[in-house]
Amino acid sequence: GAFSDFFEAFSGAKARQRGIVSDSNGTHYSMKAASRLTGLTPDALRAWERRYGAVTPQREGKGRRLYTAED
Description:
The chain is α+β, with helices and mostly antiparallel strands. It has 4 helices and 4 strands; from the N terminus they run ααββααββ.
């Protein structure tokens, strides 16, 4: 999908700077990275999550959303 393609283009340190983290739990994308990938604003992503349950991102310790390619 789009997230996977994006990750392949930006790996390693550049990926982390762009809000992409890959670890033993898979690859996760910050709100900023997901917004860039989809062309949707962060507000639109949050609205679709809240109103329609379109995505269900995981949360990190501080409550920030972490998206996966499946989202």
